[in-house]
Amino acid sequence: MRTESLAALGVFSALTAGAGALGATVTDHGTQSWYRWLRKPPFQPPSAVFGPVWTVLYGLIALSGWRVWNQPAGPARSRALGLWTLQLGFNAAWSWLFFGKRLKRTALADIGALGVSIAAYIAAARKVDRTAAVLVAPYLGWVCFASLLNEEIVRRNP
User: Cβ contacts of residue 128 below 8 Å, gap of 6+?
Assistant: First the structure.
């Protein structure tokens, strides 16, 4: 592996880890007690599921972005990388909106935009590196499920 490519993998990993760390910092003990009191749907997974799931998903997100970056430069690659960055921004914003600011409805709008941006990234990445697109498919599935959870929390907690 080229030194430049290895450094790029580090950058994609750091950016993705940063988005995850931002979410973790706004989910403090006070937030956790607020969240515990919310009425949640019966299909809400146990809290212990979220950490391992997001760890795997963040790894796939970073790897996918890195694979796209490793392809020849051009408009298709630039578009895919722009969408990769956009989805990561929506991802980081969701935790801040939902847990940090307790804006459940605004977070629902954000997670909807996140899902759209992931789908757009998958379509763009497919044109550059099919494996990169496949790597984030589980992420889109999880975000769709998380959107349903967010919607149910909004509905059950007016």
Answer: 68, 71, 76, 77, 80
